[in-house]
Each structure stands twice: as C-alpha cells, then as structure tokens.
C-alpha cells in the first residue's frame, strides 16, 4: 500500500466521526424532530422562501406566529389540547385570509378568503366557549 493511500485512509478514519456528527447535526435542523418542541427548532419561519415581496413577507410572518402560538404545553387531555392548539391554527387561517384580501386580486379567491374568515371566527368562538364551559 502506498504512503499516500495509507495517509488518506488514516485521515478518513480520524475525520469520519466528525463528519458523521456534522451530518447528524444538519439532519436534526433540517427535519422536524418529533421530540423537539416547535419553538426549539432552528428554522426561521418568519422569512419567506422565494419571493421577498410584501405579501410573501406577510404570509411568512402570519405562518410563523401561528406555529409559535400552536406550540402549547400539552396536558394529556386530548380534548383540551386539541382545542387549545386549533384556536391559533384557525387564527392563522384568518390572518392569512386577511392578507389575501389586502393583496389578492382574484375575485373568487377573495370570496373564499371572506368565507374562511367567517367560518374560522365562528369555530374559534365555539372552541373558546367549550374551554370556558369545561373550565379549561
């Protein structure tokens, strides 16, 4: 075996653990880890991917707020946890629909956005009423 091959093999043997650690670290930040709370993830959801215009920025900010607000502390009460998670999810839909109304031009999509706002506001009211009625 030549000295160069031996040296390269030795270098790789020493570097491999560091390369594996780096790959695992990158994988952890690139993929959602179900054991990691959403607020600990290293993604900046407030910045749009792609276009950086006003509507894209507004959608990204609404999405980031929704995900932050959905990161509740779970109680083990599936009913309460579902409702407490869905309220910010529905509010996110309302916020995004309002962005559509501010920037969108298609009359059919604007009509859909108005319907989303009406439906989601009613469901949020129902969920808040359920939480209050059940002392949650």
From TrEMBL:
Keyword Signal: yes
Keyword Transferase: no
Top-level taxon: Bacteria
Domain DUF305: 35-131
Residues of the signal peptide: 1-25
Gene3D superfamilies linked: 1.20.1260.10
Protein name per Swiss-Prot or TrEMBL: Ferritin-related protein
């Amino acid at each position: 075996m030549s000295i160069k091959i031996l040296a390269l093999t030795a270098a790789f043997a020493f570097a491999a653990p560091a390369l594996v650690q780096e790959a695992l670290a990158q994988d952890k930040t690139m993929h959602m880890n179900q054991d990691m709370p959403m607020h600990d993830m290293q993604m900046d959801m407030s910045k749009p991917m792609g276009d950086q215009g006003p509507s894209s920025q507004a959608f990204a900010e609404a999405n980031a707020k929704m995900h932050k607000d959905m990161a509740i502390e779970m109680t083990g009460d599936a009913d309460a946890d579902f409702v407490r998670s869905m309220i910010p999810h529905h509010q996110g839909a309302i916020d995004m629909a309002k962005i559509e109304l501010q920037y969108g031009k298609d009359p059919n999509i604007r009509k859909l956005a108005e319907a989303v706002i009406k439906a989601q506001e009613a469901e949020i009211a129902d969920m808040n009423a359920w939480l209050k009625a059940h002392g949650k």
